[in-house]
Write the structure tokens for this entry.
Amino acid sequence: MSPARSDGVRLRSHEWLLGRDELGFQHRGALRQLGLDMDGYVGQPVIGIASSWSELNPCNLSLRVMAEAVKAGVRQAGGIPLEFPTLSLGEDLMKPSAMMYRNLMAMEVEENLRAYPLDGVVLLGNCDKTIPAQLMAAASADLPAIQLNGGPRLAGSFRGRRVGSGTDLWRLWDEVRAGRLSEAEFEEVEKALYSGPGSCNVMGTASTMSALAEALGMMPAGSSSAVVNDKQRYATATAAGARIVEMVKDDLRPSAILTPAAFDNAVRVLLALGGSTNAVLHLLAIAGRALVPLTLERIDAASAAVPCLVDVQPAGSGLMEDLHAAGGVPAVMKRIAQWLDLDARTISGRSWKALLSEIVYAENETIRSLDRPVAPAPTLAVLRGSLAPSGAVLKVAAASRDLHRHQGPAVVFDTYAEMLARIDDPGLEVTPDSVLVLRNAGPKGGPGMPEWGMLPIPKKLQQAGVRDMVRVSDARMSGTSYGTCVLHIAPESAVGGPLALVRTGDRIRLDVGARRLDLEVPEEELGRRRAGWVPVESPHLRGYPLLYLKEVLQANEGCDFDFLRPRSESARRFVGPVVGRS
């Protein structure tokens, strides 16, 4: 048991800092080295500020300034702020996939919380995988925690119109491939899209996961959609610093917030946003850490009712700044309140019912009414069938309606490199009815399940005016992407899933209404192919990639590591260190 301070409150940090022996001397001395006035220390809460700031990750460049605002709030509330860096997962520069390192970042954040004298934490992230990793760590550590994001970047413009990072990149790159846009013009696009720090300014994975952190109750209401330089963002950060001190005193932990109701709310907000398919993986992973039984079936059941209401790219036409001006996530939640559990608790200590009762927003075109959605339900579908026994995901809101029911012959690519080498070959035997298949791109096959699922339309079809085709893979795709792309096929091909057995010319049937994805090949023939299947040998023989290959779960379980998911409440218990000599 930790020593008690004069008011009887016991905190983790007291084990390190209140002792009057040589260890207390050593621990307090370490904080004196930081310039802290330990003469006045009487047991104040110690608050960690976990920041993924890095020049390797321009999405997160604003977090250094935000950390200072959080520190100011912690100090105002009588706490001691200690900032520490974490691994930073940047989508633009990190290869083969930031997804492969999400679990490593979650482990690092959790172990920092375990090993140091911290009573609570404010988590600072922004890019796609940083916020999921931090939330996974928060669920595992179960110390009082607040999640903050850095915000979407400001919009640039090309030819007099705003452009959305990611979505317009893919659209305009197709124009280059089809010969309708010059390389010099595309260089102008590059300058417009990468207009400054911040995350993608469309409803990609970064914006989706920030919004879902808010819907889960872990991020201050109304804060996720504010652009990177919004002055209110820094006021929110200061308030979060003060609030986390109160949460420590009240012992308000993620386990009281990340409940089944919170995850059901987040799923429904995901659907209303027309958000990224990557969010399915991340919600499954966070829920697994929190011992919440979230499944693909539960997600698909919710998708039957909730339409896409938010007119933001790629499902719509606007940008994140439009959503923020329209009232942000709270306004979306108020619009779909009939499907939410408003008794769910938030970091404010209040329920969503109380918070939304104070929200007033004007009717607008960005958040549509239920009778005039951007896309009807389902906005996301979970598919099963002979090609995806454990499930696959399709973002229906970004798919072509005329392809919702489709049969066609497969054109198979065994690797991403092979696809790149062949896709623009004039001799490629492909028609608009073909189904493009990419395998060996899943959690183990990638490794790390890269965002390769939006396979490019073959050049000769692009030039003929084809804009979409059915594409099938065990990969992910960027949340900024679009098209009829069936993703996350489980089990993946690298472990011998049915995708490994597909051959060019086999017919594949997609039926979104029936939630089916089937390979039209007799089981007898599949048995012969299965007998001759040989797994692709991985080049990774050591280090973290080898650990990843050994331990990663399949997409239908969120791609977490099996050993990081607790099996019971007792197994979930966060065991701190024995405080003694190192």
Notes: The chain has 20 helices and 14 strands. Residues 157-193 form one domain.
